């Protein structure tokens, strides 16, 4: 197996060395901040749903409840396999978004996250390096929570600004028709409009809107790997229901080359082992 830290992909931000040209290309998320926030929120929810407490509650309370048994099945193994499949499906969707955003990163390792995730699901990468609940993982999750919260505030601020700007256009129409209004009302309105614009600028600066592709994708990519490794640990018996690859496979994700060729990689599934290179 290939060690998580020994690979050239997913370097720590402090260790990454970008050329001057790459830094110029490193742009912020902008309007993609809202889609990124949705994906981050999904990853945070997945991360918390596989804690020791949540897994214990799932196995001892939820699965054994009369309602679940009546509506679904009394077979605990079957119900656990459903829970495993549901989490894996959510993770696959999040990983697909991370892979797509990774194509816009200036870091070559993040460009190839689709290959990394494929190697991870094939069991080529070492799970021992993907520690759930470590200080590093917890810090990244908290960072994502802050970014998601700030981006949510930005959305609300933008909606409020849109409403005020619509009102501003109506006021200008009234002015053009020489409809008299008290000067105090104008002053209060324009002061409120200016404050709203300042609020929007503030949340743009602290939210995902101004966060670079490299920083946001790096956060999500690492949590995707940690969550997948954790899912395989807590749903060990269910995760082994998928067929294993017995022949020797070289990792698609490393080492990093100086030049790259365009490639298409399909996520590993029960039905297919097809990889197009």
From TrEMBL:
Residues forming the DUF3475 domain are: 31-86
Which InterPro entries does this one have? DUF3475
Name the UniProt record assigns to this protein: DUF3475 domain-containing protein
Provide one Gene Ontology biological process annotation: positive regulation of growth
């Amino acid at each position: 197996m290939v060690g998580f830290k020994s690979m050239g992909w997913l370097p720590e931000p402090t260790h990454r060395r970008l050329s001057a040209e790459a830094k110029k290309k490193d742009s912020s998320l902008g309007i993609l901040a809202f889609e990124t926030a949705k994906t981050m929120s999904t990853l945070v929810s997945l991360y918390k749903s596989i804690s020791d407490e949540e897994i214990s509650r799932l196995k001892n309370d939820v699965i054994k409840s009369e309602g679940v048994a009546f509506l679904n099945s009394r077979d605990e193994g079957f119900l656990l396999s459903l829970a495993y499949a549901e989490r894996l499906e959510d993770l696959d969707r999040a990983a697909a978004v991370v892979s797509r955003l990774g194509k816009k990163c200036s870091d070559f390792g993040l460009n190839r996250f689709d290959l990394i995730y494929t190697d991870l699901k094939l069991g080529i990468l070492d799970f021992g390096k993907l520690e759930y609940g470590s200080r590093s993982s917890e810090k990244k999750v908290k960072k994502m929570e802050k970014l998601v919260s700030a981006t949510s505030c930005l959305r609300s601020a933008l909606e409020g600004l849109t409403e005020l700007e619509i009102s501003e256009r109506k006021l200008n129409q009234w002015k053009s028709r020489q409809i008299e209004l008290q000067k105090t009302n104008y002053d209060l309105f324009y002061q409120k409009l200016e404050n709203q614009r300042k609020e929007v600028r503030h949340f743009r600066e602290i939210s995902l809107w101004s966060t670079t592709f490299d920083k946001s994708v790096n956060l999500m990519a690492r949590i995707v790997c940690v969550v997948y490794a954790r899912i395989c640990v807590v749903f060990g018996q269910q995760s082994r229901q998928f067929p294993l690859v017995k022949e020797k496979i070289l990792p698609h994700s490393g080492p990093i080359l100086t030049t790259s060729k365009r490639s298409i990689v399909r996520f590993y599934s029960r039905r297919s082992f097809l990889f197009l290179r």
